[in-house]
């Protein structure tokens, strides 16, 4: 069981969920971050154009993704970002449910 769980509200449409989970040792924290990218910003449109040019229309690339990484108590990564997508989602609702599922699983089993 986690020592504490903090849901952080980030304004904007891109962040579905951002949660810091504290383990029982004072230096053990994990961050669960779920983002949603619908291709509306210029950078996202550029990435989409590059995929089209390079014929990388990969069906496994979804607009929603959850990343889990080690962090400090403020949610800042301790070392260079080494988080890898743990789950990808096709809809925003799936992303919200997936974020909550990861938070429940990590907080229930994480005792270190």
- Overall tally of structural domains: 1
Give the CA-based shape: elongated
Give the uncertain stretches in residue-range form: none
**N-end to C-end Cα span:** 9 Å
Give the structure's gist in a few sentences.
Helices cover 27% and strands 29% of the residues.
Walkthrough of the structure:
With 112 residues, this protein is α+β, with helices and mostly antiparallel strands. It has one domain (4-109). 27% of the residues lie in helices and 29% in strands. The chain has helices at 42-53, 92-109, and strands at residues 4-7, 15-22, 29-36, 64-70, 84-89. A five-stranded antiparallel sheet has the order 1-2-3-4-5, with helices on one face. A hairpin with a 7-residue loop joins β1 (4-7) and β2 (15-22). The radius of gyration is 15 Å and the shape is elongated. The mean pLDDT is 81.
Element layout with pairings:
Layout (H helix, E strand, L loop, with lengths): L3 E4 L7 E8 L6 E8 L5 H12 L10 E7 L13 E6 L2 H18 L3
Identify the notable features of this structure and list them briefly.
single chain, 112 residues, alpha+beta, 5-stranded antiparallel β-sheet, 2 helices, 5 strands, elongated
């Amino acid at each position: 069981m986690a020592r504490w769980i903090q849901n952080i509200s980030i304004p904007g449409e891109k962040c579905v969920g951002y949660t810091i989970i504290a383990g029982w040792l004072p230096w053990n924290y994990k961050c669960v971050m779920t983002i949603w990218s619908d291709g509306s910003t210029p950078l996202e449109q550029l990435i989409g154009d590059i995929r089209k040019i390079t014929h990388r229309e990969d069906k496994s690339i979804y607009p929603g993704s959850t990343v889990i990484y080690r962090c400090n108590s403020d949610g800042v990564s301790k070392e260079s970002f080494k988080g890898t997508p743990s789950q990808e989602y096709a809809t925003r609702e799936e992303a919200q449910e997936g974020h909550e599922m990861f938070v429940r699983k990590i907080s229930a089993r994480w005792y270190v």
